[in-house]
Amino acid sequence: MRVGLLFGSFNPIHVGHLILANYMATNTTLDAVWLVVSPQNPFKPSSSLLHEFDRLHMVRLAIADNTDLGVTDIEFRMPKPSYTIDSLTYLQERYPTYQFALIMGEDNLVTFPKWKNHEQILEFHEILVYPRPGSGKVPDVLKNHPKITVVPAPLLDISATFIRQCLKEGKSTRYLLPEAVLDYIQIKKLYL
């Protein structure tokens, strides 16, 4: 089984994440896409992050009716900040017959050489890259790498930061968030 891993804080998960994950699951050689909820990104401050279990629950609500998508909380039990190589190693040990591929934006590919053990990731895992306009120059060594495939996935220019700001200001987020996620946010009075 070939599983694509889309890492993120999902703070909150929105339709842009879902469109990308679904596209990768149904328009590539992947059998499924798992959303990996990260408790803390090593490259981002964690001060604005909602509790990890709330973010995990919102992802579960968002993908409940899609059998091509899954979610994992494996990074919750790992030292923080968690690094992609450690998560991949853990998953490969837990699911030895699965083949895991990373899904990342072109902006992450630009900084990929700074990742912990990035050479080992490339040695054992394929990377599916979706375009991100204005993301910067991809290092030459990665441009034509045999393990890196650029996938022309449709993108929406929506950010979780923008959504959190809308929620804080009491503005509508209709059509930006799945209805079940918005209901959960409103019931729990999150992001206010």
UniProtKB/TrEMBL annotation:
One of its GO terms (molecular function) is ATP binding. The keyword NADP does not apply. Pathway: Cofactor biosynthesis; NAD(+) biosynthesis; deamido-NAD(+) from nicotinate D-ribonucleotide: step 1/1. Gene3D superfamilies: HUPs. It catalyses: nicotinate beta-D-ribonucleotide + ATP + H(+) = deamido-NAD(+) + diphosphate. Keywords: ATP-binding, NAD, Nucleotide-binding, Nucleotidyltransferase, Pyridine nucleotide biosynthesis, Transferase. GO terms for biological process: NAD+ biosynthetic process. Residues 6-165 form the Cytidyltransferase-like domain. Its EC number is 2.7.7.18. It comes from the Bacteria. Pfam families: CTP_transf_like. Belongs to the NadD family. This is Probable nicotinate-nucleotide adenylyltransferase. It comes from Rufibacter immobilis. The gene is nadD.
